[in-house]
Amino acid sequence: MIDQNEFPSDADPFDIAPVRLTVDLGALAENWRDMARRSGSARTAAVVKADAYGLGLEDCGETLYEAGARDFFVAVVQEGVTLRAYAPEARIFVLSGIWPGQERMFFENDLVPVIASEEQLAFWMSVLVEFGDYPCALQVDTGFNRLGLPMQDALALAEDVSRPASFSPVLVLSHLHSGDTPSAASSKAQLESFRQVSAAFEGIESSLSASAGIFLGPEYHFDLTRPGIALYGGEAVNGMKPLRPVATAEARIVQIREAAVGSTVSYGATHQLERASRLAIASVGYADGYLRSLSGSGIPLRTGGTGGGFGFIGGYRVPVIGRITMDLTIFDVTDVPDGAVRSGDYIELFGPNMPVDEVARAAGTIGYEMLTSLGLRHERRYLEAE
Ligand SMILES: *Cc1c(COP(=O)(O)O)cnc(C)c1O
């Protein structure tokens, strides 16, 4: 029989977690204020879709609200319902609009649907007939071909004297497709189109820019800007240094092993050691969003020639070798001085020493995907804003 009194006292789960995530809410708040300054005279919203880019809608939403954000964008209505408790006085826009059956969720939580197609517009008009005035936003497509009324339909709607008076959009918006590439001529063309839309809906606020567009200059700001990725410390504009890092992902080293020259590593034996090596086995895998495309070798679909991802430990960058597996990843720590890496230590997967966008590039993807792929196993710690 085990004597329960013999158990050691419970450790803080974060200190013993196989894989863990630290979210610096102070940096998040600072990044929002930074984007608000860059937005000049425009108001600055906060985009918190996909669980605040994987970092936690409740904590991030509350922090952004306390930092001063009063306009929020979510992708789907359920996110709006969750956010409402943390952002009581804010306007919450639902980017995917409203579907029949969701009316109550919208009305009870004071959520604003972003109407983005003719079909949704027709449904919305019928809702207004039944329930009376209720605010909405209108998305107009200026070249993305994703969501939004076609330009001509939007301009016709603006001019339509027969439209019901209860149809009262509080915001018209559009979205740039290449804002992250400052040289793209298309942003200018989208800007010109959106100016027409904005003028047609005179007296109604307008919004064009996400994180990247804010850097394109004041003419892109209109009344409201919509930063997302920049708030979370990701790269908004290609090649431009991001704002403060917010998320740090780490995994525990569960074993250090000495491996012989000529032996092979991980599934498929795609990496053969060219020297006697010291390997650190970390308890993180693709099930935790440490994407398999970060593997050191043996990933036939990866193009671009990079050699896989790196972690950061004991002051050193160490490469992933062989294939990443579901729960475990192997790092080559041979070049780290003896004793600087031990089992039980944590290796940084991304964070202040290993920029998330650099890791993403090694995986053939973008920081957005690294963040929103964080799995359910990460033990989370939130560093409170001041
Ligand atoms: C996701 C999204 C944003 C935020 O984009 P970032 O690049 O993360 O700043 C803004 N507007 C719309 C319509 C979006 O879908």
TrEMBL record:
EC number(s) stated in the UniProt entry for this protein: 5.1.1.1
Stretches assigned to the Alanine racemase C-terminal domain: 246-383
The protein's required cofactors: pyridoxal 5'-phosphate
Pfam families membership: Ala_racemase_C, Ala_racemase_N
CDD domains attached to this UniProt entry: PLPDE_III_AR
Keyword Membrane annotated: no
Highest taxon, organism lineage: Bacteria
Catalytic reaction list: L-alanine = D-alanine
Residues the record lists as binding substrate: R146, M326
Membership in a protein family: Belongs to the alanine racemase family.
PANTHER family the UniProt entry points to: ALANINE RACEMASE, ALANINE RACEMASE, CATABOLIC-RELATED
Function: Catalyzes the interconversion of L-alanine and D-alanine. May also act on other amino acids.
Protein name: Alanine racemase
UniProt organism field: Pseudorhizobium banfieldiae
Organism lineage: Bacteria, Pseudomonadati, Pseudomonadota, Alphaproteobacteria, Hyphomicrobiales
Gene encoding the protein: alr
